[in-house]
Structure formats: C-alpha cells, structure tokens
Design goal:
heterodimer; A: mainly alpha; two-stranded parallel sheet; 8 helices; globular; B: mainly alpha; 3 helices; 86% helix
C-alpha cells in the first residue's frame, strides 16, 4: 500500500472523526453543564470503550477471514453510499438549500431539555442516570459512523490499527480543544470538513469497488488522487451552481438549524 | 425470543436507515456501480471512464432531486 493511499486514509478518518466528535462534544458539554460532569464524562467514556470494542470485534475478523477482493467490493460499496450521502448533504448545505448544523443552538436546546427533565437540583458529583444515558447515546450514535469508516478503510487496506489511531487522535484533539475553550466547538467549519471527507470517502469507495472487481486503475494507488480531484472539482462546480440558481421554488433555507441526528 | 426479535429489528432498522434512509437513489446507484464494475472488469479502459462518470451522475441526480424537493 503506497504512501498516497495511506495519507488519504489518515485524512479521511481524521476528518470524519473530527466532525462527529465535535457534534458529540456539544452533547457531552450540554450534559455536563446541566446535569453534572461526572455522569457526562462517564457516559462518554463508556461509549468510547464500546466503540473501540466494536472496531476490534468487527474489524479484526474481517481482515483475517474474508477474501480481500470480496471485502473490497463490499466495503467499497459501503463507502460509496456513505460518501455520496455525506457529499449530497454537504453540497446542499454549502449551496444554501439546507440549513447548516448549528452547534450553539443544539447546545442551548439540549441543555434546556435536560434542565427541564431534572427533578430538583442535580449534584455535579453524584451519578445521574439521565445525564449518563444522554452523554452515552450522543457519543455512541455520533461514533457509529466513525467506527464504520475506520473498519471500512482500515480493513480494505489492512491498516486497521492506523485508521483506529487516526480516529482516536481526532477524538483526543477535539476533547482537548473543547476542554481548553470550555465549550462546544461552534467555530469548527463542519460543513467544509464534511465536503472534504465526503469527497475522500466517495473516491475511496469507487477505487475499492473497481480494485475488488478486478479493474486495474492506471497508476495503481495514485489513481485515488485523480479520482479525488475529479470529485472535488465536480463538488465545487455543483456548489457554485446551486448558490447561483438557489432552490427551484421559494426562498433559500435558513442559514442554520437545530438538528440532533448522527450525521 | 422476543428480545432476539427486537434486537434483530433494531439491527435491521439501523442498517436500513444507514444504507437507504431518505436517499434510496444513492443506494441503488452504489449497487449499479458494483454490478457495472464486475461486468467491465476485463475492459479496464472503459471501466475507469464509466465508473467515475456513473458516480458523478448519480450524485448530481440526487442533489438535483434534493433541490427540487425544497
């Protein structure tokens, strides 16, 4: 496996993990502020442990027992679906047809819901079931896509450890920055990262489907860079065109939205 | 048995939402790309042109569909 595909793998996993962890951090901070930090951190840690177990339990058998070409076709198809759906959503957002993900609004809404759910004051030191559950669910749901990306990219290149390491590094970085600024990371350009990751996942997916099926890409692994270039140019053109023409009918979407879904 | 059934439903529902969700056209496009890749595996030149074109057209169709829905 060449340095090119390894670099793209690292960038794709790191980017995807960063986006999802920023969204997870918003929920964890909301739980910490409104229900207590002990439950928030325990819930988040439990989810991270479960996600790591999933990577090992699914990824390792895939690498050892499934024929590589079949694995690449299936995983390539999975990455294509995931990549194209990320790209579609990010293009619609960048083109002004879908509201951007607003971490500040999500933080405020989650905090308010959790406060309303509180019966009396919640101690910051005692364990709180609701806080634990909300933090666990938030991190687990946001992390599931990262696990799929780590397992897919890691297994198809036999670099599961490297992919898991890149995801963990992104999670640690987001947590550290989040702790330093003591709030959710609303300044992170999520949609731009999503556009980049969507381009990389789609390109990887197409490359592995071809490789697994027996197609020889010219330049071998270097073809990934060319495919990324094609999708990047196409995405840029599509976003520019959408910004110019707007929606088919009615006004453009509001700039931001409160949307608490794993995406 | 009831728990197993519920777990199977949750598992199936997760994968359905993940793979199909509100963009079934992209799922179908990915399946078609796999089929075409297998059919063209001996014609490398045609395959390296057709596969990216299929992916680009699928994405464009899905984005246009999303734009028209708004």
């Amino acid at each position: 496996m060449s340095a090119t595909s390894t670099t793209v793998l690292l960038l794709a996993v790191f980017g995807a993990s960063t986006v999802e962890m920023v969204e997870a951090l918003t929920i964890v901070v909301a739980v910490g502020v409104s229900r207590g930090w002990r439950s928030a951190l325990e819930g988040a840690a439990a989810a991270v442990v479960l996600l790591a177990v999933l990577v090992a339990a699914v990824g390792v058998p895939l690498i050892h027992y499934v024929p590589i070409d079949a694995l690449r076709v299936v995983i390539g198809g999975l990455l294509l679906v995931l990549g194209m759906s990320w790209l579609r959503k990010a293009v619609l957002r960048a083109g002004g047809l879908k509201p951007l993900h607003d971490e500040d609004a999500i933080f405020a809404a989650t905090s308010e819901e959790l406060r309303q759910g509180a019966i009396g004051a919640v101690s910051t030191r005692r364990r709180d079931g609701m806080g634990f559950a909300v933090a666990f669910k938030g991190v687990f749901l946001e992390g599931t896509e990262v696990v799929l990306i780590v397992v897919s990219l890691g297994a198809s290149q036999h670099r599961l450890g490297l992919a898991a390491g890149a995801a963990a590094a992104a999670a640690v970085l987001v947590a550290l920055v989040g702790a330093l600024v003591a709030r959710q990371l609303s300044a992170v350009p999520e949609n731009t990262i999503k556009l980049g990751v969507g381009v990389m996942l789609t390109s990887f997916g197409l490359f592995w489907v071809g490789e697994g099926a027996g197609v020889h890409w010219p330049g071998s692994d270097l073809a990934i860079v060319v495919i990324i270039g094609i999708f990047a140019l196409f995405t840029l053109g599509l976003v520019t065109w959408l910004r110019r023409v707007g929606p088919r009918s009615g006004p453009s979407a509001p700039r931001v939205a409160v949307e608490r879904t794993a995406e | 048995m009831n728990n197993i059934g519920r777990a199977a439903r949750v598992f199936g529902s997760f994968w359905w939402d993940f793979l199909v969700g509100d963009t079934p056209e992209l799922f179908i496009a990915a399946l078609l790309i796999i089929v075409v890749a297998l059919l063209l595996r001996h014609d490398h030149v045609l395959a390296v042109i057709v596969l990216p074109v299929m992916a680009v057209l699928s994405l464009m169709a899905s984005v246009l569909h999303g734009r028209n829905k708004r």
